[in-house]
Amino acid sequence: MSVRIKAVGKALPEFWSATEDILPFLDGWLKNQDERFIRKVKKIFEGAAVDKRYSIMSPGEVFSDLSFEERNTIYIKEGIKLGKQCLETALGKAGWKAEDLDFIITVSCTGIMIPSLDAYLINELRLRQDIVRLPVTEMGCAAGVSGIIYAKNFLKANPGKRAAVVAVESPTATFQLNDFSMANVVSAAIFGDGAACVLLSSDGADKGPEIIAEEMYHFYDAENMMGFKLTNSGLQMVLDVEVPETIASHFPAIIHPFLAKNGLEIEAIDHLIFHPGGKKIIQIVEELFGKLGKNIDETKEVLRLYGNMSSATVLYVLERTLDTKPQTGEKGLMLSFGPGFSAQRILLQW
Fold this sequence. Notes:
Elements: E1 4-11, E2 15-18, H1 19-29, H2 35-46, E3 52-55, H3 59-62, H4 68-94, E4 103-107, H5 117-124, E5 132-136, H6 143-157, E6 162-169, H7 182-190, E7 194-201, E8 210-218, E9 226-231, E10 234-239, H8 243-261, E11 271-274, H9 279-289, H10 297-306, H11 313-323, E12 331-338, E13 342-349
Helix pairs in contact: 1-2, 2-7, 4-5, 8-9, 10-11
């Protein structure tokens, strides 16, 4: 019994800004800072490999003194809207009805809402009253792939069923106006808002790439490298400068044993569907795999067009890969990283 990915749909907020349009707002935000620091921050924004990013708030609102409560209220309202949009888009692409879903997983780490997003989507789209729901809140950028892993395991145990994984993120809602740390600066430079939905099926009539294998990899003693600190002013970014180098040092253990368990080597992978964590991580991946003739062009393009949208981002890369119409027999490797520190991997075959 196989589990296949049927469709991917995305949704974007109404506000968007090119990087050059953000720079004047930096002048206002950094007006009391040292001139050298201001130049450094602007260079980080200009060199982040992000041309454009979307937001649930206007730039003026992002760089304002909105309270944690006010930002989170916007996150809830706009998150429900984006979740509904991407789920409806995915259902339309799959030719499914809302009541066809047996399982819904929602993932997000950039705001707080109880009841969780899935409860709202059940009501908004009139999903079945017996649908199984699972909200995942604290896995950060890795949660998009994690959600697919959880859905796959549910479907493998329940033949003939269908599932949706909905990722909705608003990193801009976590921006800290009075935090001039590198973690907050880098976060503001590389992150953007967005939502995506993946539909999966264990119904033999549904076509799409099959999930051949999936696995998680956990780094020891790295809990403090990435995440959020809950403060009175909101979710404060924790982002260690050693993250790219730490990932690089673990790459052989993350990639090769996983593929070997499935009788493969990296040369057999046709599509690298990697989460674009940032420019440095992309450079490391290219250095490691470029000499093998592999590229992560779709990953780079998603970062350029949207920025890092946390858990939703790798799903944008997946959608772009699906749109290239891979040939039967081709293989893809999905990979994302998140707090913990952890790496999540999925092996696909068309």
